[in-house]
Design goal:
Blueprint: E1 3-5, E2 8-10, E3 16-21, E4 30-37, E5 44-50, E6 53-56, E7 64-69, E8 74-79, E9 88-96, E10 103-105, E11 109-113
Parallel strand pairs: 2-11
Antiparallel strand pairs: 1-3, 3-8, 4-5, 4-9, 5-6, 7-8, 9-10, 9-11
Length: 115
């Protein structure tokens, strides 16, 4: 259901844009989100998006922007001023707004911030 792309290696201060192909998901019924995980940490919420309302982790506020294209069924995460601590595998997530059992994950895309 969900396929991420756009990860890679970037220097500190640089930018990346992650994309999630969410074909098969009806944005009106699902909370769309980005999570990230490292070998040392549990999967954490980065940002989520539902009917135009967005929510961000404190660590990324002012640097990351989540957005969605309902017509194309695409979810994006624009990441600016990247820091080494942003290094992680980033996952796209879709969770039904009423029925938690309908939750889907992408396979993840690696983001590495290093000089």
């Amino acid at each position: 259901h969900l396929v991420e792309s756009g990860g890679g290696l970037v220097q500190p201060g640089g930018s990346l844009r992650l994309s999630c192909d969410a074909s098969g998901v009806t944005f009106d019924n699902f909370v769309m989100a980005w999570y990230r995980q490292t070998p040392e940490t549990q999967r954490e919420l980065v940002a989520d998006f539902f009917t135009g309302t967005t929510n961000y982790a404190d660590s990324v506020k002012g640097r990351f922007t989540i957005s969605g294209d309902h017509a194309k069924k695409m979810l994006y995460l624009q990441m600016n001023n990247l820091k080494p601590e942003d290094t992680a595998v980033y996952f796209c997530n879709a969770r039904h707004r009423l029925l938690d059992q309908y939750t889907y994950w992408g396979q993840g895309t690696q983001v590495t911030v290093s000089s």
